[in-house]
UniProtKB/TrEMBL annotation:
EC number: 2.3.2.27
UniProt record similarity statement: Belongs to the NSE1 family.
This protein's name: Non-structural maintenance of chromosomes element 1 homolog
Residue ranges annotated for the RING-type domain, each copy included: 227-271
Domain of life: Eukaryota
Subunit and partners: Component of the Smc5-Smc6 complex.
Record InterPro entries: Nse1, Nse1_RING_C4HC3-type, WH-like_DNA-bd_sf, Znf_RING, Znf_RING/FYVE/PHD
Spans annotated as Disordered: 281-321
Length: 321
């Protein structure tokens, strides 16, 4: 069966590419019925069942499509979802980053809001104490207005960002367009596809170039960190129990990492025992909330102030619909 799809780009590839363009990501199991239907439509006298589609057939489609679309700066890349561990295949633009693509369908104010949300995910909510790398929908909505402008006066609201309902719509469209996903606990995170497309942008934006002879560990703290096992970005997973250490692992990569180092359950970088490894991801937000005192106090005071300020503006805003 794979003989006649190997190499040659035909109508079935075109149809599969169209399906990918409209959905952006696909799993092998989702592709099976799709490819069966496409092949059956192509050859009605020889119907294909979804059980007939092997992983090799699917790989052949991906391979053939990749050579066809690479001149247009697209590539189908695969990655594992960090929590469901599902292998997903995403249609990735290899030259422009996700923010550039969003700008083709969103206004400048909307993109600026999305950038504030990303700053909150990867900067504000991503400290050495708590690597949340996610944002609650409450906190995201509070970024509808540019906080700096808001303090200097409410009169020019149209220049100061979005209304609450506009922000809500943008967040929803980020989910619909496949950039954000919303957890059951109400946290927005970047999807695997967004991480594939934003990898370079995230590193450029949030990782300081470490200065030579810099003694201050907080200063060289890299905001975007990679799994020691699979080398992909970790926004949900585990971190080395030694807080200053930059080693991160996906939950599904921990066991293979230990196996690779002869069953030694220790950090691959600093050799600290990998016991009670703190979480990376929204679980880190819950842990941070539970712990009181320390350096977290200053931050929570500020958040309380922000929340109070927002209640004020909500009351005066009158819905904004
Ligand atoms: Zn990994
Ligand atoms: Zn370590």
């Amino acid at each position: 069966m794979s003989d006649d799809v190997d190499g040659a780009y035909d109508n079935t590839h075109r149809a599969f590419l169209q399906a990918l363009l409209s959905r952006q990501v696909i799993t092998f199991n989702e592709a099976k019925p799709l490819l069966a239907a496409i092949q059956t439509a192509n050859e009605p006298e020889r119907p294909t069942l979804q059980e007939d589609i092997s992983h090799e057939d699917f790989d052949n489609y991906v391979y053939t499509l990749n050579s066809a679309i690479s001149p247009f700066d697209f590539e189908i890349r695969s990655t594992l979802h960090q929590t469901t561990k599902q292998k997903i295949y995403a249609l990735v633009n290899t030259t422009s980053d996700a923010l550039t693509q969003m700008a083709t369908v969103h206004s400048a104010d909307e993109i600026t809001f999305v950038k504030r949300v990303l700053d909150a995910m990867f900067d504000t909510n991503n400290t050495q104490r708590a690597e949340v790398m996610a944002i609650s929908s409450m906190q995201a909505l509070k970024l509808a207005k540019d906080a700096n402008r808001r303090e200097s006066g409410n009169t020019q609201a149209q220049n100061a960002g979005l209304t609450m309902s506009q922000a809500e719509k943008v967040l929803q469209s980020m989910v619909d367009e496949g950039w954000f996903e919303l957890s059951t606990q109400g946290f927005y995170t970047l999807t695997p596809r967004a991480l594939l497309e934003l990898r370079g942008w995230l590193m450029d934006t949030y990782n300081d170039q470490p200065a030579e002879d810099d003694e201050d560990e907080e200063e060289v703290h890299e905001k975007i960190k990679f799994c020691q096992a699979c080398k992909e970005i970790v926004t949900q997973g585990e971190r080395c129990p030694k807080l200053a250490c930059l080693a991160r692992l996906h939950a599904h990569c921990v066991r293979s990492m230990f196996r690779a180092q002869g069953n030694r359950e220790e950090c691959p970088v600093c050799k600290t025992a990998w016991v009670d490894a703190p979480p990376v991801g929204e679980k880190a937000a819950r842990n941070a909330r539970r712990s009181t005192g320390g350096t977290g106090g200053r931050r929570s005071n500020r958040m309380r102030r922000d929340a109070a300020a927002d209640e004020d503006s909500d009351a005066s805003g009158g819905g904004g619909e």
